[in-house]
């Protein structure tokens, strides 16, 4: 059966991967029959209506899904296609209450034209009541005038006709409205680096967060990913090398509630928040065995601040420090020593950790920055992880990518020959260790950093 | 810090990873708190196979919870809702708010303050094999 998905015009390269991830999660086959990155309309083949509902119900970038009744480049074609595909089903809806809605993309119709279009479908022979609120059946006419790339946003010249027209029966809405519920502006605890609700929820979909599952974020920060994953029912925990990031000012200065926990309270999901603790991925206290259903992270890029990992630079003392007869590291205010850490080394450490900790078919969804010019930084790969998809969020001078991996069963390996083979160059300063930082940092910043 | 989390943790010191005594970590001066949370049978059922039962029994015994079955429940035993609720209470509702977690191998103690454990290592532990002097500490 063919279905029409109506997408939001946002995060284009995430749209198909999200639908694919949700079809995988629902255990159904999806085939993309028509997809155009400038159009909100996409046609897919799915086994049945139940599958269509299952796939769309969690989607964040799709708005809704429709049973495709017909399509064409003009209305005559649409009528013929509707007749051909669905004539045997018209009787089924004869007595149902219904309504018609017209949605024009990059174009406009007057109310009179809309009325005429609706009238023109009277050959369907529906005799039920017309209800604008809660009808039994909801029929939609979609007109795609095609995005005018030269001047998007300006109205079409009068009299221009749509390039493609679709007609469909509404099946189900997506979860797109939850983006508003988790809007950062209304969230109790956030910071400048908290990822927005839409992207964290998409990430949770890509990683298959769901009820009964255990998910972990090794760079938890203000816990944006934990919130998104728990929204879909997962039990979540996280850690961060800087405990201040998840504690928050409220807790540290006034003994109030921990920042990350206060977000879970706000959304009524305290039962799905497992823990946060202070630790560093290179010296993680997590045992080395396959117990996580998924890992989601946005590792620090080391642009605003050089990357740090536990350890000491060459030449610093390695003996235990004793103050007033007590080991310094047991005293309040002790700050563990940290050393510069390379971006490549960190990404490799994340993949190694994922291989050790994910259950078979468990997923890692990792964000990674790249510069827009020159050669792209290669995708980090590991022979025990399959790269499922890569989506890009472009910014002015750089982009970030969401890479989704699947932990392969033992004995199965992926082809890593196309992937990242580089390891960190020898270096001491953050710039020498981080190709991304070198590419995006303006020169004065580099000079300042090396002094 | 919840008791379930402790089941997934061992000493963070590199040289301890291979030593059996580095797991489970032992609580010292633990101050416990019980917080009622929404019961999630699906999660408990999913996580039981991944719980190290012996480690959990050791921990529960040290904290004074005696009623843990000797063996990990399997098959029909998992249909017993009372058992799942008890495990939910122990693993997710019981939290350590203050105390220390101690490695049985190197003796290093990890602080828990206001429910948050700190596993960052001081420099002498981050890079070197722990000294013999610690071995008898726990």
From TrEMBL, chain A:
Entry keywords, A to Z: Cytoplasm, Methyltransferase, RNA-binding, S-adenosyl-L-methionine, Transferase, tRNA processing, tRNA-binding
Domain Ribosomal RNA large subunit methyltransferase K/L-like methyltransferase: 186-304
Main location: cytoplasm
RNA-binding recorded as keyword: yes
Single GO BP term: methylation
Annotated InterPro entries: DNA_methylase_N6_adenine_CS (IPR002052), RlmKL-like_Mtase (IPR000241), SAM-dependent_MTases_sf (IPR029063), TRMT11 (IPR016691), TRMT11_N (IPR059073)
Pfam families: Tmrp11_N (PF25904), UPF0020 (PF01170)
Example of a GO cellular component annotation carried by this entry: cytoplasm
Enzyme Commission identifier(s): 2.1.1.214
MF annotations from Gene Ontology: tRNA (guanine(10)-N2)-methyltransferase activity; tRNA binding
Domain tRNA (guanine(10)-N(2))-methyltransferase TRMT11 N-terminal: 1-176
Source domain of life: Eukaryota
Family assignment from sequence similarity: Belongs to the class I-like SAM-binding methyltransferase superfamily. TRM11 methyltransferase family.
The protein's name: tRNA (guanine(10)-N(2))-methyltransferase
Source organism per UniProt: Aspergillus ibericus CBS 121593
TrEMBL record, chain B:
Superkingdom field: Eukaryota
Main location (coarse class): cytoplasm
MF terms (GO), sorted A to Z: protein heterodimerization activity
Subcellular compartments: Cytoplasm; Nucleus
Signal peptide range: 1-18
Gene Ontology BP annotations: rRNA (guanine-N7)-methylation; tRNA methylation
Keywords noted in UniProt: Cytoplasm, Nucleus, Signal
A GO CC annotation given for this chain: cytoplasm
Similarity annotation: Belongs to the TRM112 family.
Protein name listed in UniProt: Multifunctional methyltransferase subunit trm112
Organism: Aspergillus ibericus CBS 121593
Lineage, uppermost ranks: Eukaryota, Fungi, Dikarya, Ascomycota, Pezizomycotina
């Amino acid at each position: 059966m063919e279905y029409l998905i109506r997408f939001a015009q946002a995060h284009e390269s995430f749209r198909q991967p999200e639908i694919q991830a949700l079809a995988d999660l629902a255990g159904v086959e999806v085939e993309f029959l028509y997809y155009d990155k400038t159009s909100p309309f996409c046609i897919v083949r799915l086994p049945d209506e139940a599958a269509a509902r299952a796939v769309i119900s969690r989607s964040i970038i799709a708005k809704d899904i429709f049973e495709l009744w017909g399509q064409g480049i003009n209305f005559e074609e649409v009528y013929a296609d509707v007749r051909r595909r669905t004539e045997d089903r018209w009787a089924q809806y004869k007595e149902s209450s219904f309504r018609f809605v017209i949605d024009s993309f990059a174009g406009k119709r007057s109310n009179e034209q809309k009325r005429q279009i609706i009238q023109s479908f009277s050959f369907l022979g529906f005799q039920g009541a017309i209800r604008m609120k809660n009808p039994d059946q909801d029929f939609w006419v979609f007109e795609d005038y095609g995005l005018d790339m030269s001047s998007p946003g300006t109205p079409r010249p009068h009299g221009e006709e749509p390039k493609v027209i679709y007609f469909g029966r509404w099946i189900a809405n997506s979860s797109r409205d939850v983006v508003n519920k988790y809007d950062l502006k209304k969230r109790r605890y956030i910071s400048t680096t908290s990822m927005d609700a839409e992207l964290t929820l998409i990430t949770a979909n890509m990683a298959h967060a769901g009820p009964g599952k255990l998910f972990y974020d090794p760079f938890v920060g203000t816990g944006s990913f934990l919130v998104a994953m728990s929204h879909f029912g997962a039990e979540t925990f996280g850690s961060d090398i800087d405990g201040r990031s998840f504690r928050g000012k409220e807790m540290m200065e006034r003994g109030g509630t921990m920042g990350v926990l206060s977000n879970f309270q706000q959304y009524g999901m305290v039962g799905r928040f497992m823990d946060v603790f202070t630790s560093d991925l290179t010296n993680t206290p997590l045992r080395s065995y396959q117990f996580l259903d998924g890992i989601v992270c946005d590792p620090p890029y080391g642009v605003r601040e050089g990357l740090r990992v536990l350890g000491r630079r060459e030449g610093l003392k390695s003996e235990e420090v004793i103050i007033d007869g007590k080991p310094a590291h047991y005293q309040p205010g002790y700050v563990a020593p940290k050393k510069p850490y390379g971006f490549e080394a960190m990404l490799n450490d994340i993949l190694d950790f994922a291989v050790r900790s994910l259950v078979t078919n468990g997923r890692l969804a990792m964000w990674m920055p790249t510069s827009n010019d020159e050669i792209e930084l290669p995708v980090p790969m590991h022979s025990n992880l399959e790269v499922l998809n890569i989506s890009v969020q472009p910014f002015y001078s750089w982009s970030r990518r969401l890479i989704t991996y699947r932990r392969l069963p033992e004995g199965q390996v992926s082809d890593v020959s196309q992937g990242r083979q580089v390891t960190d160059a020898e270096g001491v300063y953050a710039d020498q260790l981080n190709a991304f930082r070198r590419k995006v940092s303006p020169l004065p910043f580099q000079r300042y950093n090396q002094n | 810090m919840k008791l379930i989390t402790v089941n997934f943790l061992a000493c963070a010191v590199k040289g301890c990873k291979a030593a059996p005594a580095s797991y489970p970590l032992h609580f010292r001066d633990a101050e416990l708190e019980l917080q009622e949370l929404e019961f999630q049978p699906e999660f408990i059922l999913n996580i039981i196979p991944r719980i190290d039962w012996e480690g959990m029994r050791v921990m529960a015994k040290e904290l004074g919870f005696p009623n843990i079955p000797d063996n990990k429940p399997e098959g029909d035993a998992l249909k017993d809702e009372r058992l799942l609720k008890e495990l939910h209470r122990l693993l997710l509702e019981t939290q350590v708010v203050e105390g220390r977690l101690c490695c049985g191998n190197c003796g290093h103690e990890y602080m828990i303050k206001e429910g948050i454990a700190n596993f960052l290592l001081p420099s002498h532990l981050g890079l070197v094999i722990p000294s013999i002097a610690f071995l008898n500490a726990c």
